[in-house]
Structure formats: C-alpha cells, structure tokens
Amino acid sequence: MAILLGAGITLVASLDAMISQVPNPLLKKILAQIKESVNEGNSLASSLAKHPKVFSQIYVNMVRAGEESGSLDLVLYRLSELTEHQQALRGRLKAALIYPLFMLLIGALVLFFLITFIVPNITKIFDEMHQVLPLPTLILIGTSGFLKSFWWLVLGGLGFGALVMRRLIRTPKGRHIWDRFKLVMPVVGPINTRTAMARFSRTLGSLLQNGVPLLTALGIVKNIVSNTLMAQAIDTSMADIRSGKALSASLSRSKWFPPLAIQMISAGEQSGEIEAMLNKIAEIYEGEVESQVLAITSLLEPVMILFMGLTVGFIVISILLPIFEMNQMIR
C-alpha cells in the first residue's frame, strides 16, 4: 500500500490492487469491505476500525494521523517496518527455542519408554528371585510401576493444573500476581522486562513519529505491553503528564522501567528527539533479549544432556547392583 500510494496511485485503486493480490479469502473479503467503506466517503482509518481483530489500535491511530497530515504513504511504510521488526524478533526467539524444546520432548519420551516398558521386563527377574534389593533398584521399580499403572493420572494432573492456572490468570488478582512473577523470576524475569520495554519503546516511538499525540499513544501502548504492572505505571504516567510532568520523570517512579531507558527518554525530551531515542531504546533491548535467549538456550543443551545421562546412569546402576550382589553370593 505504501509503495502504491507513494507512486501516486489513488487509495481506492491501491485497495483494488491489494484485493487482487491477497490469497487469503477472509482477508480479501475484509479488504473489499474497507474499499466499499472508503468509496462511501469514510476515511481509511475509520474503515479499518470496523475490523479490530485484523487492524489493531496502533494501525488505526497511525493511519488516522497519516491521513490528517497528508503523509499516509510514509505512515504505512513505517507501519510495515514496525511489524517487520516485531516479527523478526519473534522469529529469532522461536528459532532459538525450537531445538532445546524438541530435545526436551524427545528426551522425555525416551525416558518414559525406558521406565514404563523396558525396565519392568528386566526388574521382573529380580522379583521372581525374592532377593533383598538395593535402595536405587527399589526406587526404580516403584517409579516404573507407578508410571506404568498411573500414567493417565500424571497426564491428567498436569492438564488439570494447567487448566486451573489458566483460569486463575484470567482473574484480575491472578493476572496481577502472574505478571509480577514474570518480571521478578530468576533468569527469565530480566528477559520479560526487556521484551516489554522493547515493545513499549518501538510502538510509542512509531506512534509519536507519525503524529499521534503523546497521551493517545500511551493509551495505545498500555494495551500492548502485555503486563498489568507496566500498564498501571503507564496509567500513572498519563495522569502525571496531564498535570504537567515530563514522561521520563513520571516513568522513573516505577521500578519496572530500567534506569537506562528513563535516562535515554529524558535525553530525548531535552533534545526534542524523543521518537528517535525511543527507537534506539527498542534496538538496544531487542538486541539484549536476543543475546540473552541465545545464551540461555546454549546452556540448556548441555544441561539436558547431563540430566539425560544422569537419569540413564541411575537406571543402569539400579539394574546392575542386584546382578553384582548375586555374583558375589555365588562366589
């Protein structure tokens, strides 16, 4: 759309071109409805607002600001950049996590198969001999018997626990506790904080850069940080800004916004380049998130291999100990 409008093609003709290129039938239908709304004399922003599940508040408000300033093509180009930044970061994080999660799943399945199918066939010999077995062997036989008989109970308990957790998180108090836990938990907490800060800075910078008023932009950003504690801090900041305070001074009162971000926002306010400074903050925290996730995933692999080795080693020792004892008795 940005390229078509920048080339001087009218909005309706650009929408026509988009409709012919979109392969998704549902999106094609939505774009046709938007084109019809624009043909009826409505603005593009108000036409997009009729489809909130497809076009978020960020899109609608940035498009509205672009229409009012006469720079819709530039706004759409920046919107595409914003979306590409977010998708690129999400894609890199997913790519970094796929291999460790795959290893964890395969390892869990292998251990479950060993304990529930292989081990019982071997330990059945020990039961028939009516011999006093070592403690590791008794633990292995007990674990194997429990998982073989009550595996459904374990899976059901995990599923029930996940369901209860999901219900609790949907309550206001439960959501507040969960969001606090996400920010303070070891290792993962700093990553969640930096991810939220990158999303906050990137979105707020893009909105301000395209002429959206600060209070309106903060109201939009509040809904996309995905954390109630940070949303409350933004709410407080909006009240402070209405009373004449600076954004950096207000955010500094919250412990969830890092000092580095506050100092850079303050520098941007003083120099009149807060939009550029917010985009710089987003770049810094996106880079930190990516490097931290890569560091954690690189550590996860040897930890999982060590855990698998220790577990298999315990199984082997538990099986060999009674055999060694029988050999000694024969001698």
Largest β-sheet summary: none
Mean pLDDT over all positions: 85
Helix content: over 70%
End-to-end distance, in Å? 86 Å
Number of helices: 14
- Overall body shape: elongated
- How large is the share of residues in beta strands? under 5%
Gyration radius over CA: 29 Å
Query: What's the β-strand tally?
Result: 0
- Superfamily (CATH H level) name of the largest domain: Type II secretion system (T2SS), domain F
Low-confidence stretches: none
N to C succession of SSEs: HHHHHHHHHHHHHH
CATH topology name of the largest domain: Receptor-associated Protein
So, CATH architecture of the largest domain? Up-down Bundle
CATH top level class name of the largest domain: Mainly Alpha
Helix/strand layout:
Blueprint: H1 2-6, H2 11-21, H3 25-39, H4 44-49, H5 57-69, H6 72-129, H7 135-170, H8 172-184, H9 188-209, H10 214-221, H11 228-242, H12 247-251, H13 259-271, H14 274-330
Helix pairs in contact: 2-3, 5-6, 6-7, 6-9, 6-14, 7-14, 8-9, 9-10, 9-14, 10-11, 13-14
Describe the 3D structure.
With 331 residues, the protein is mostly helical. It has helices at residues 2-6, 11-21, 25-39, 44-49, 57-69, 72-129, 135-170, 172-184, 188-209, 214-221, 228-242, 247-251, 259-271, 274-330. The protein has two domains: 2-55, no CATH class; 77-331, Receptor-associated Protein (Up-down Bundle). The chain has 14 helices and no strands. The mean pLDDT is 85.
